[in-house]
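Quarterly update from the structural biology core.
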Amino acid sequence: MLVICYGMPKSGSTLAFELVRGVLMNGGHDQRKIRTSIGIKRRGPGNHLAAVSRSALEHAIGEIGPDRTVAAKTHLPLPVPLFGWLETMQAARKIQVIASYRDPRDMVLSMLD
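Predicted structure, tokenized:
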């Protein structure tokens, strides 16, 4: 299963990603980087989605396989036309999406620091 953690910058998405990743690691789920070159940024620990297209997500799911659960982070918005497919994949337990939200006024203040 691919667990996508996303939100706008300064919305707590990195915290959500690190918490999910830590829980998965403590549960015995290997969090090594997905090797596929489609849609994965090669920087820092963890998987960072560079694209949220259907083909990029399908490649990532294929590489993860049915026996692993891997967290990935992105600040990219999920395209509205993809929602129906995401719901189908979630029902099949191949994708889970975690969205973080923060009041935009708080985000602006955070950026000023």
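The chain has a mean pLDDT of 86.
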